[in-house]
Amino acid sequence: MILAHVSAVVDEIAILRCRVKNKGNRTVSWMRKRDLHILTTNIYTYTGDQRFSVIHPPGSEDWDLKIDYAQPRDSGVYECQLTTTFKTLKLRSGFTTQSRLEQKFLDLRKFM
């Protein structure tokens, strides 16, 4: 089940949103589903691809995944996970990229 879908233009920034209320001492992670790679845990990044990072302003409930210079290979399903003692809660986001030309076409379609 995908709860959110994000589109981004190739070579631009993409942000996948995740809001966690009452996090307490639990862990928030972002995982890429295609290879089950844990990208971030809390504020730490666990991938060699430096385009990925988490945006978490201190004191906020936001734990957003930021992808710099989004590429077509980044398309897929990502999960924001909240790990508790007994289970993991998951929020899935679908993500696709498109070229600038595709974006301009989609923008024009809004006015048709």
Shape: globular
- What does the main sheet amount to? 6 strands, mixed
Number of strands: 9
Mean pLDDT score, rounded? Answer: 81
The quaternary state of the protein chains shown equals: single chain
The count of helical stretches stands at 1
CATH topology: Immunoglobulin-like
Main sheet: strand order = 1-9-8-3-4-5
Order of helices and strands: EEEEEEEEEH
CATH class: Mainly Beta
Radius of gyration: 15 Å
Termini separation comes to: 31 Å
Domain Ig-like: 1-90
Pfam family, one: V-set
Organism: Drosophila melanogaster
Protein name: IP15667p
SSE layout and pairing:
Blueprint lengths: L3 E6 L4 E3 L10 E6 L4 E5 L2 E2 L6 E4 L8 E4 L8 E8 L4 E11 L1 H10 L3
Parallel strand pairs: 1-9
Antiparallel strand pairs: 2-7, 3-4, 3-8, 4-5, 6-7, 8-9
Task: Outline the structure in words.
The chain is globular, with a radius of gyration of 15 Å. It is built from one helix and nine strands. It is mainly β. It has a single domain (4-109), classed as Immunoglobulins (Immunoglobulin-like). Mean pLDDT is 81; it is low at 102-112. The protein has a six-stranded mixed β-sheet. The protein has a three-stranded antiparallel β-sheet with strand order 2-7-6, with no helix packed on it. The longest helix is centred in the C-terminal third of the chain and has 10 residues, at 100-109.
Put the structure in a nutshell.
With 112 residues, the chain is mainly beta. The protein has one helix spanning 100-109, and strands at residues 4-9, 14-16, 27-32, 37-41, 44-45, 52-55, 64-67, 76-83, 88-98.
